[in-house]
Amino acid sequence: MAHVTFPFPFPEHLEFLIPEMIIAMMAMVLLIADLFISKDKKQWLAYATVLVCIVTAVAVVQVTTGHSATSFYGMFVMDPLASFAKLLILLTTVFGVILSFDYMKNEENMGEYYCLMLFAVLGMMLLVSSNNFVTMYLGLELMALSIYVLVGYQRNVLRSSEAALKYFILGSLASGMLLYGITFLYGATTSFSFAIIGSALAESNESAHGVVMLGLVFVLAGMAFKVSIAPFHMWTPDTYEGAPTPVTAFISVAPKVAGFVIFMRILHDAFPAVQVDYTNILVVLAAITIVVGNVAAIAQRNIKRMMAYSTVGHVGFVLLGLIAANEAGYTGALVYLTVYLFMNMGVFAIIVLMRRDGMDGELLDDFAGLSKVRPGYALAMGLLLFSLAGIPFLGGFWAKYAVILPLIGAGHLYLALLAIIVSVIGAFYYLRVVKYMYFDDARVTFNFIENPAMKAVVIVSSLAVVAIGLYPEPVMAICKQALIGFI
Amino acid sequence: MESLYNVLGFPILSLSIFLPTAGALFIWMFLKDDMAVRWAALAVSVATFIVTLPLLLFFDATTAHMQFEELHPWIKAFNINYALGVDGISMPFVVLTSLLTVICIVSAWTCIQTRVKEYMLAFLILETTLIGVFCALDVVLFYFCWEAMLIPMYLIIGVWGGKNRVYATLKFFLYTLGGSVLMLIAIMAMYFKTGGSFSVLAYMDYPFNFDWQFWIFLAFFIAFAVKVPMWPFHTWLPDAHTEAPTAGSVILAGILLKMGAYGFLRFSLPMLPDASQYFVPFMVFLSLIAIVYVSLVAMMQTDLKRLIAYSSIAHMGFVTLGTFMFTEIALEGAVFGMISHGFVAAALFLCVGVLYDRMHTREISAYGGVANVMPVFAVVMMFFAMANVALPGASSFVAEIMVLLGTFNPSSEAMLYMPFSMKWVAILAATSVILSACYTLWMVKRVLMGDLVKDEVKTLSDMNLREFSFFAPLIVLVIWLGLYPAPVLDLLHVSVAHLVDQATSSKLADAALIAQGAAAHLTGH
Beta strands of A199-352 (E only): which ranges? Predict the structure, then answer.
């Protein structure tokens, strides 16, 4: 029997990458199919993208083993945490594609839009599975490059191009910083692997401390940029405002999920030896982020900008879970991301629905009197906003609860106090939108996009927020299980 | 689980909590017509009231144990339980809530014409959260209901309120939210201190040392003081009351204010007895300011609702004063005062509502000689004005006299940190009898008495049967409890005695023992 020999050792457990392979292949298939599909049938590409995401999600569930395993010689890790993050990302993508149905219908080259989305997802999936700075950088850049293009997709709209350019320049700078940090760490430990760096740092002597600190600071700064932690958040408002609204919805959630999961991996696997140092940095960053996000949001009149600052605020809260740095803290961060996914996608779905005559319904004034014209949407929006403000019986309360409790347990009482007091300030700008919807009279006529799938996104998101608010046990249990093999 | 004390054998508290929400969901999904919505909301609220009545009938007044208990795990990861139960202190408020909700819904029958459905839904959901607050035996569940209440109340004031409603409702929301988030932090800190429990009863038993008690007391104090409201945290109340629709003011004065005072009774006193004793002079000081200064402020109001709002703050000053005397008579007076104020203040706001529905102004100067055209109404308003003054025969008299008696003769624990005799406090507090008479009677004079000179007032029509229907039960209750308060006091008695026992027994000795034990453990003995 002929013995097949490979010119290189064949990686074990290649089946772990089946979801990524599906996405990569289908993205390319769609790209080619786009060439042969007539202009009025392009909508099928969107439906196909949703289908690809669902199939990939099934594949993710199938390859999940319930413990931690690696492929590609330890560079690719497959554990419940990665699977959980991938499912969140895929769900966000499904929502994002549905929001794009009508919005992007009249854009040129619509097919490429969905392919780019899939490539971004591929990057994120690689990112959350990476166990190594090289894989991580690959995933990060694949994600970032796709998103730069998505942000600038409306190339005839000035602010879309402006947003993309700003995002690209600042993003490249951040990637540079990240790479710079990685080289320092490589210099100190001669490895890219999180685990090997972790053990090397634990044994390293004082002489390498300066280099390690430099590496740590640059890596933290690079990551902080990617997940919009202040003071590295400057790109967020401009990018969110300029990007097509479905893209804003997508990038306000999916890259944050991916970024935080890899952030958790880096901190937990590579930097346990310098936990005191990185905690000090993160405490300051979290405090600044929460204050900046919530205070700056008050001044915004454009709801997309407001949501950008609100995102910064929420990112600060997720960071609190990482500061606690124990099982409860990481669980809290995952719970927060899950609830945040539904809240943000729901809010953006309503913003997209309010688009009229080619104009986005994106000023706060545009929401005036919504409750009289469309009570259903106003109710959903109201629930989502109260949830974002963290008021009980809604999911946002438990999200905040789940990160602040471990934070106090870890001894950061003052940070918890600050966070919770600032969240009261934050409640103000969410309540102001409710005020427009419920207390004011309509000033403009509403002309809603009528699309059952988009309506479904609104309904699913607001129901999820209420359900999690009343009975958070399942979500908390799932998030806790997602950490098996990681902690 | 088998230790749950529930003589009825079915979850009556859950039923009274969820019946209004279930009704609200039904109305939301199936009803469109305004009149159908009104009747359905009335039916739901009456049904809830009837469901809470067995609490009165089957309550065992001979024990301070929690009754009608329920316990289900809610969030296992944090050991949070859906734990319910009432004792003599909380049970009356459950019944009071369900009664006042019925009155609120009847009172809104004609004056709310826009978005009737949303209005009724908001009130029914509000009722759920309010009953939840009084039944919760898990601090997180308590906090959950305490905060969730803000959402319907925000909408009630903001959508159906007066012309300055947006400012008032935002102020109300942010003030109360800001006050209560510190309570959340305190709860979380206690969770770790007690080794992972959120049970109210466990916190009552756990010996916190003085430092812990001190800080937790302050955190709770801000949350409760904003809600009561105590001077100087009271500024949201006049605005909220003035701008709220009538029924909103009724529920605000009748129930929401009681939540703060109830918090002191349920949390501060039994969980933090030493800090409570330490803060007696402080609390007495703030209560006196509420009684004397705020009464003077009330006198100068030109707006009817504002005047009653300030008078509410003054009366709640009596409640907080009685709370921190740690004697049975004062505490019973405080609880009884809360119940009585629930009737009297609610009725006064309803009176203003009756006037407002006809004249659409709350300015005192717009009225005068109303008694000439609305004789029945004048009698009713006069009656509740007298009750507000705490005239003998009204329930409020019983409450005030009990609190004053308790203040003249406080427990020795209340005197531990008091720099001077409590007699002076009692004498100052007693001036309220005069001050409240001043502002109330002056208001009555300006509104009801005098000659008919204003044209608008001349055309007023007297109360109709519907309007009288929601005053009737309140009149009966105020007189009945004023002449014969024993039925309610009997319900309170054993629970209050238990509370006095908790509030006067120091936890410091046990805390020191635990600290010693920990030290011994650390040194390896």
Answer: none
